[in-house]
């Protein structure tokens, strides 16, 4: 499989050998191991590779000592621990390596922020650089084969998404996505969340997939899947922490009738979303083009903000009278508001109520013609 360079890789490499661990989080099969292997090759140093999915590795690194770690590491200068969330007390182990063993770079990757963050945050305070790796981005594919080629493929991306294997193996997308969803998507959720009802998880995922772009209610989803709102909330929390979905909260400031506690949920990848609902129909045959376009733009925006290390508050806006703005972003106190429409011919505008309430806000309509400026900041 061809390697597509990840734009975050140079930033990661620049922070090697700074007496800090490098932590890379992201879903399974997104390319964490491939990216780190490429980065490590550039160092030309002896590497020790350890996989937390293997039982003997978990036993070796759990509840260990600095003396034992020295014997394990030996003359290796880079220690790469894959799927580190599987290893008990891995935070303490990483801390011992950083504090007790000189001139060594330790790297840990994990496919669940739930576990890895919980067990490394306190031990590694001030001792780590943390990065997120998502499915490939529009910007990375532009870098790989040019803007014109990637824009030509945009309808394909809206349907099949950006997982590396999907991008590099054209012609077998539906089978690969079904395999990806069935074999990998739930693996960490089922292990980490002690979930004994995978059928319920599937129902919740399908309900979320069908409501992309709409405000969601835990109570309504609970009624739909015959479960409590508390269970629905817990499952969605696990889906977030396993990098399947993410939330966008409602923005409220000056308008009396603004919705203040609403939320929308989006998928990190369009292909996964479409696999869940079993719909790979081409764009001209679909009734959910608006949802696909909105999910694509908001997930791509999240990726490019992360790649460029831009801290942004992200929201949607709606009033009880159903006036709406699809996406709001606040960076260093400066607000921008965006409305999304696939067709440039569709007349869409920012509500006057919003403009009057927030006159200093930059506003923009994003279509299939001008979206490059929204998702390709470099």
Report on this model:
The chain is built from 19 helices and eleven strands. It is an alpha/beta fold. The protein folds into two domains: 9-132, 3-Layer(aba) Sandwich (Rossmann fold), CATH 3.40.50.300; 138-375, no CATH class. A five-stranded parallel beta sheet has the order 2-3-4-1-5. Strands 8-9-10-11 form a four-stranded mixed beta sheet. Strands 6-7 form a two-stranded antiparallel sheet. Strand 9 (324-331) and strand 10 form a beta hairpin. Helix 13 (198-210) crosses helix 14 (218-225) and helix 13 (198-210) packs across helix 16. The longest helix is centred in the last third of the chain and has 19 residues, at 289-307. The protein is globular. The model has no long low-confidence stretch (mean pLDDT 90).
Q: Count all strands and give the number.
A: 11
The computed structural class is: alpha/beta
Helix content: 40-55%
Describe the global form.
Answer: globular
Main sheet: strands, sense, barrel:
5 strands, parallel
β-strand amount: 15-25%
Distance between the termini: 26 Å
| Poorly predicted runs | none
Compute the CA-based radius of gyration. Answer: 22 Å
Mean pLDDT: 90
Strand order of the largest sheet: 2-3-4-1-5
- How many H/I helices? 19
- Helix-strand sequence: HEHEHHEHEHEHHHHHHHHHEEHHEEEHEH
């Amino acid at each position: 499989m061809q390697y597509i360079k990840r734009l975050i890789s140079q930033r990661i490499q620049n922070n090697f050998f700074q007496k800090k661990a490098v932590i890379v989080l992201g879903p399974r099969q997104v390319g964490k191991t491939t990216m780190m292997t490429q980065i490590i090759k550039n160092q030309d140093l002896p590497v020790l590779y350890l996989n937390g999915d293997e039982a003997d590795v978990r036993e070796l690194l759990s509840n260990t000592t600095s003396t034992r770690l020295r014997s394990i590491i030996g003359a290796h200068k880079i220690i790469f621990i894959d799927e580190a969330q599987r290893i008990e007390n891995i935070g303490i182990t990483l801390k011992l390596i950083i504090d007790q063993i000189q001139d060594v770079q330790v790297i840990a990757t994990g496919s669940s922020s739930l576990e890895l963050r919980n067990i490394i945050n306190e031990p590694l305070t001030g001792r780590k650089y943390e990065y997120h790796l998502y499915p490939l981005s529009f910007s990375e594919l532009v870098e790989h084969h040019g803007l014109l080629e990637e824009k030509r493929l945009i309808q394909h991306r809206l349907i099949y998404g950006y997982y590396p294997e999907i991008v590099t193996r054209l012609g077998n997308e539906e089978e690969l996505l079904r395999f990806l969803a069935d074999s990998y998507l739930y693996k960490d959720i089922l292990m980490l969340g002690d979930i004994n009802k995978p059928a319920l998880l599937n129902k919740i995922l399908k309900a979320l997939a069908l409501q992309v772009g709409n405000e969601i209610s835990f109570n309504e989803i609970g009624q739909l899947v015959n479960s409590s709102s508390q269970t629905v909330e817990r499952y969605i929390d696990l889906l977030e922490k396993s990098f399947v979905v993410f939330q966008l909260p409602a923005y409220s400031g000056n308008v009396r009738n603004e919705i203040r506690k609403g939320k929308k949920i989006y998928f990190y990848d369009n292909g996964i979303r479409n696999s869940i609902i079993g719909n790979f129909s081409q764009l001209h045959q679909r009734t959910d083009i608006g949802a696909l376009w909105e999910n694509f733009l908001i997930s791509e925006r999240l990726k490019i903000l992360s790649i460029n290390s831009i801290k942004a508050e992200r929201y949607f806006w709606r009033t009880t009278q159903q006036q709406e703005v699809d996406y709001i972003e606040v960076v260093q106190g400066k607000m921008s508001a965006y409305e999304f429409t696939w067709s440039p011919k569709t007349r869409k505008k920012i509500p006057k109520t919003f403009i009057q309430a927030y006159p200093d806000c930059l506003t923009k309509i994003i279509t299939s013609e001008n979206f490059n400026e929204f998702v390709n900041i470099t």
